[in-house]
Design brief:
Elements lengths: L15 H14 L9 H12 L5 H12 L5 H17 L7 H17 L7 H15 L5 H14 L11 H21 L1 H4 L2 H11 L5 H16 L6 H19 L18 H13 L5 H12 L4 H18 L1 H4 L3 H14 L3 H18 L13 H15 L6 H12 L3 H21 L3 H22 L9 H22 L4 H15 L7 H11 L15 H21 L6 H13 L4 H17 L4 H16 L6 H13 L8 H16 L1 H4 L4 H6 L9 H10 L20 H10 L3 H12 L3 H4 L6 H12 L8 H5 L1 H9 L5 H17 L5 H22 L6 H5 L1 H18 L2 H16 L5 H19 L18 H19 L4 H15 L4 H4 L3 H14 L7 H21 L1 H4 L3 H11 L6 H13 L6 H14 L9 H15 L5
Length: about 1100
């Protein structure tokens, strides 16, 4: 810099500190020094200011020549920045009020005089703002008025973008708007002046930054709130500025903002739209411009615009009130009626009905004696038009107008009575006089909607307060309906039957005595099953009957909501009776149980009765020689498991648990004679080939089903153990203790030594797993050695091993960690499970029996690990997880089974970290440490990745490691895995490249490939930045797996992964691959499976329309 502008030369000798400060200012204002190198000077200046070593006066003296530099706006701008830094950080002065006032006045005069310095506003405006923010109490109204006038005269806020960088200009405009906000708070009288309002409108016009827009929209309601609505001057001012204010804000409707990639501000379209909505609604003087504007937008072809226009209009009507909007209602109603009738969008139609309801609450004032009942245009128009439509020849729009009647009536109790009294008598007249199908159908629909509006407006607790004359008219309509519904019902017209069913439910809630509910819902619909020959249903397809059943269940739910006492046992009893009368026809039993389940689900108070009746049915079946009784029992348990069992009394819960224990004990007697049990126990070893039978038992079928998503979790809903778990976990711990003590008195050791213990073991385990930690488990711990030994033997199905393992895991999870029982149990697990596995891995144990039991050892180990990890007992869990990692890569004896054991070890990670509501879970009182999954992931992911470098790179071992990683990845939050993406994906890629060598092992190939593709999709979705470099490697593989013929799930998942690449990845990364992908997807368009074809079309279209934007 030139020496003439060097402030250090201006300092008096001996002023060392000021000399240092002057040097810092010289550096800060030097335009030749990059901004990045000025940060140190800035921090030192702030320290001097906050330490009181640099006052405002001294600062201005040191900045003098810089502030007045005639030719270089960069120097002046830097000087203003230093001044702002001083003003913002200077401590409260020791000067008296007069001195402070004089200083602030001088500062503001200086800043105001510099407002013409347009190129430096980015640093000058913050000075203005900080003066007002810190010393507003020292600023007089006259001075503030002068500053405001000078600001609007010299500063064109929206022109700032043309003279400085976009980011800097946006920030400066934002500072201007923050100053306006400050004026609204501190100087409301100035804000209400016409000069400020006109300047404000000019300043916000054309603003495009979303954050600044939200600030602007937010200021408008705050400004309007400053005015006294009863003042004549208010009307004059607001009427004068409202047109201009509406013009500059309405241009943003509808909001079409889409956040840019990597946006950090978190502003959404809805955020901006909500601010604009409140801006429109704050000023009733907008009405002459607002309603024509929104009605014009309502004619848009875009569904989203229509919905937004309806919401804005409705909200503004609610805020403005009836006196303001009354003159516009006729025109508004014409638009709403036309839109509700002609639209093909259900969203728009529902929004129109919502609009009618909400506006009706505003414009109808039943208690105002000056307004006649139908003096308000839109209400009378709805009623009059609906009745005119009903009396027309064709009557094709009755359903739409019926819904409009509902929308009016549901607004309030008073309005529902008004609508009912106006409409219902005429509906009765039309129904009694007409024989025309369309008129009868339309009348039924309108009656349904009017009655529904009445019930919902009065709510369940006030239905008894409905006027008696209305109840009499409903009774008259019901009598008329009963006289004619039979004829209409027997015509087998689906639409007519559906509306009849619905109307019956609306009659029912008003408790006018009739047998309609039972005659139609129960006898005619719910009791019907496929194949029954009944004249009322001879023309109906099974799908129609299902639709009637669904409609009936939905209406029963509606009745239960408003009149729960009507849905009583007499609805269930006929259904229960059919179970005894259907001669054990399984298709009828299944259908009736399905209906009972649906009713019990929607009517929770019936659960105790339904449960009691179903258990009685099970007891009855035990006395019958019915070959289907096990199938029916399973279906009954499925039905019970879908009910809300918490509504059952504790004594009954205990009774049912005892019953299921007895049923489980009876298994030993019936297993040999029951075909169903033989089928379900086909896991048992055969005499012909015990080794092969055991392998099938351990690892399941070699073929994945067509719906394989490779989550082979078992559905427990039809099992006794699941019901025991649901019942027992909802008992208080004292009752649980009683159940457990009774169970122990049954000589469990003998029960578990029988030849068939599958069901008893599962029930026993469910009761242990569902116990509260407060229950005394000492007796169970004492027998845990026998339980562990039994679970490790290959004498029973592996499901027995799983059940007993869960019981052991629950003990490890819930017993106090410092107790002797816990120490004994962990020692036992180490001796019986950990040490034998260690011996196998070290080559010590090689006998055939031991090898055949390895899958059971792994199963037990996985549950022990889960119990310990969930409670955070990592000191004990580490040894088990280390063994599990070693089993992943170990080449077990008898090579042809090694790959299955490796995969079993991978599945153990899913057991250890996965969620299972039927085992260790917080709902079953398990102890769960916060973030235990993240901790387990961190403990093991590095071990697994290190294993890759130490393996023989056999495909099945790499695949097992990948499957273990996949099981971990899909059970922890995305944020946890992001740091490991660069290490995880190379393993996935390596396996996918090795997949041809897995082809000979069809039993595992499909599941491992699915896990690899699923992991890839997860990473493509959540770690785009890290995955961008791998696109060229993964795309060819995905194109190949998209044609994998043995699994449509793999094909669909591959296509979804390819589609994910079109979302959020840089265009320059995708473009080189675009042609290859489009060409590679051609064969998928002809896939034999519809799901695959649909996914291929979606994916290919995404690449066709992809562009740089």
């Amino acid at each position: 810099m030139q020496s003439s502008t060097n402030t250090a030369a201006m300092i008096e000798p001996g002023s060392i500190i000021l000399s240092e400060i002057a040097s810092l200012i010289d550096s800060f204002c030097n335009p030749d020094i990059p901004s990045s190198k000025k940060e140190g000077a800035k921090r030192l200046l702030i320290d001097h200011v906050q330490g009181g070593r640099l006052s405002i006066n001294d600062g201005i003296k040191l900045l003098g020549e810089y502030l007045n530099h005639a030719t270089d706006e960069k120097i002046r701008g830097s000087a203003y920045a230093v001044l702002h830094l001083i003003l913002e950080n200077v401590p409260d002065q020791s000067m008296d009020d007069d001195q402070q006032t004089k200083l602030v006045t001088t500062l503001l005069r200086f800043i105001t005089d510099r407002l013409y310095d347009f190129d430096c506003l980015a640093t000058l405006v913050p000075c203005l703002f900080v003066c007002f923010n810190r010393w507003f109490s020292l600023i007089s109204t006259e001075q503030c008025t002068h500053i405001v006038l000078q600001f609007f005269e010299n500063v064109n806020v929206q022109s700032m973008a043309s003279t400085s960088g976009v980011q800097s200009a946006t920030k400066t405009r934002g500072m201007c708007f923050e100053w306006f906000n400050l004026l609204i708070d501190k100087f409301p009288s100035i804000v209400k002046s016409v000069n400020f309002l006109n300047g404000f409108i000019q300043s916000i016009e054309g603003e495009r930054d979303p954050a600044n827009l939200m600030t602007c929209f937010d200021m408008v309601p705050r400004i309007i709130e400053l005015f006294d609505i009863h003042s004549e001057n208010t009307e004059k001012i607001l009427t004068g500025i409202s047109d201009d204010l509406f013009d500059v804000t309405s241009c943003y409707f509808p909001i079409t903002y889409t956040p840019p990639p990597n946006d950090t501000r978190g502003i959404t379209k809805n955020d901006i739209s909500n601010k604009l909505l409140k801006c429109f609604a704050c000023n009733k003087y907008f009405a002459p411009s607002l309603f024509p504007f929104l009605l014009e937008k309502l004619s848009s072809d875009l569904i989203e615009t229509k919905l937004e226009a309806l919401e804005y209009m409705c909200y503004c009507i609610e805020r403005y009130g009836s006196s303001v909007v009354e003159e516009y209602l006729t025109e508004i109603w014409a638009y709403i009626k036309a839109e509700a009738v002609k639209t093909s969008s259900m969203e728009v139609m529902r929004k129109c009905y919502e609009f009618i309801t909400r506006t009706t609450r505003v414009v109808v004032i039943p208690n105002d004696p000056s307004i006649r009942q139908f003096d308000v245009p839109n209400i009378e128009a709805i009623v009059r038009t609906a009745l005119a439509e009903l009396r027309s020849k064709e009557c094709k729009l009755a359903a739409q107008y019926a819904r409009m009647l509902y929308a009016c009536g549901v607004a309030s109790r008073e309005i529902s009575v008004i609508v009912f009294n106006r409409v219902f008598p005429e509906l009765i007249t039309v129904l009694s006089e007409s024989e025309n199908y369309d008129k009868i159908y339309g009348t039924f629909i309108m009656m349904t909607q009017v009655l529904q509006a009445l019930a919902e407006a009065f709510t369940a607790s006030h239905l008894n307060s409905i006027p008696q004359n209305i109840i009499q008219q409903i009774g008259q309509a019901q009598t008329l309906f009963i006289s004619m519904y039979e004829e209409q019902f027997n015509k087998d017209d689906k639409e007519m039957i559906l509306v009849i069913i619905e109307l019956i439910s609306r009659f029912a809630v008003f408790r006018i005595e009739s047998t309609l509910l039972k005659d139609v819902y129960v006898n005619r619909i719910l009791l019907k099953s496929y194949g029954e020959d009944n004249k009322s249903f001879t023309l109906l397809h099974a799908t129609s009957l299902d639709e009637y059943k669904d409609r009936s269940i939905k209406d029963i739910s509606w009745i239960y909501k408003y009149a729960p006492d009507i849905i009583q046992k007499d609805v269930i009893i006929p259904l229960i009776q059919v179970l005894y009368e259907c001669q054990n026809r399984s298709e009828i039993i299944h259908r009736i149980l399905s209906v009972i389940s649906q009713i019990g689900t929607v009517c929770s108070t019936l659960t105790p009765f339904i449960t009691e009746q179903l258990f009685e049915r099970i007891s009855f079946n035990l006395t019958q020689s019915n070959e289907n009784r096990e199938i029916e029992k399973t279906k009954i348990f499925e039905t019970i498991s879908g009910l809300d069992l918490t509504t059952i009394e504790d004594s009954q819960k205990m009774k049912y648990i005892r019953k299921m224990i007895e049923l489980a004990e009876m298994e030993e007697d019936v297993v040999g004679n029951n075909k169903y049990n033989n089928h379900n126990n086909n896991e048992m070893m055969t005499d012909e080939d015990p080794v092969e039978a055991e392998i099938e038992d351990s690892f399941g079928s070699s073929q994945c089903g067509t719906g394989c998503g490779h989550n082979h979790s078992h559905d427990h809903r039809g099992e006794m153990s699941h019901i025991c778990l649901l019942l027992n976990r909802s008992l208080p711990f004292e009752k649980q203790q009683q159940v457990l003590d009774e169970l122990l008195q049954r000589n469990i050791g003998v029960r578990l030594s029988g030849p068939s213990i599958k069901k008893f073991a599962s029930v026993f385990s469910a009761l242990i797993v569902s116990c509260n930690p407060q229950v005394n488990m000492t007796s169970i711990v004492e027998m845990s050695g026998n339980l562990l030994s039994l679970s490790l033997q290959n004498l029973h199905p592996i499901s027995v091993t799983s059940s007993l393992s869960q019981a052991i895991a629950s003990l490890l999870n819930k017993i106090p960690i410092e107790s002797d029982e816990f120490k004994y149990l962990t020692s036992l697990c180490n001796t019986l499970v950990l040490e034998p596995l260690s011996q196998v891995l070290n080559g010590v144990a090689t006998d055939t029996d031991h090898i055949l039991s390895l899958d059971r050892y792994l199963e037990v180990l996985s549950w022990i690990l889960k119990g310990l990890v969930m409670r955070g007992a990592y000191l004990y869990a580490d040894a088990y997880s280390n063994i599990l990692c070693s089993c992943l890569v170990f080449d077990f004896p008898q090579q042809h089974h090694s790959s299955k054991l490796n995969k079993k070890a991978a599945d153990c990670f899913l057991t250890a970290i996965g969620e299972d509501e039927n085992s260790l879970h917080k709902d079953n009182h398990a102890l769960v440490q916060v973030l235990y999954k993240q901790r387990f992931f961190a403990m093991n992911v590095r071990k697994l990745m290190d294993s890759i470098t130490t393996t023989s790179h056999q495909p099945h071992i790499v695949g097992s490691i990948l499957l273990a990683l996949s099981n971990l990845i899909h059970n922890v939050p995305t944020s946890v895995i992001l740091s490991e993406v660069k290490n995880i994906f190379p393993i996935v890629l390596k396996f996918l490249e090795m997949r041809p060598s897995l082809a000979q092992d069809e039993a595992q190939t499909e599941e491992l490939i699915y896990a690899a593709i699923k992991t890839t999709l997860t990473l493509l979705t959540d770690a785009k930045q890290e995955m961008a470099v791998h696109l060229s490697a993964i795309v060819p593989i995905l194109l190949e797996t998209a044609k994998y013929q043995r699994s449509q799930n793999i094909r669909v998942l591959s296509l979804e992964a390819l589609h994910e690449i079109t979302i959020g990845f840089p265009y320059h990364e995708i473009f080189p691959l675009k042609k290859e992908i489009i060409r590679g997807l051609e064969s998928c368009l002809d896939d034999k499976k519809r799901r695959v074809r649909r996914a291929a079309v979606k994916c290919r279209n995404a690449y066709f329309v992809m562009s740089k934007n």
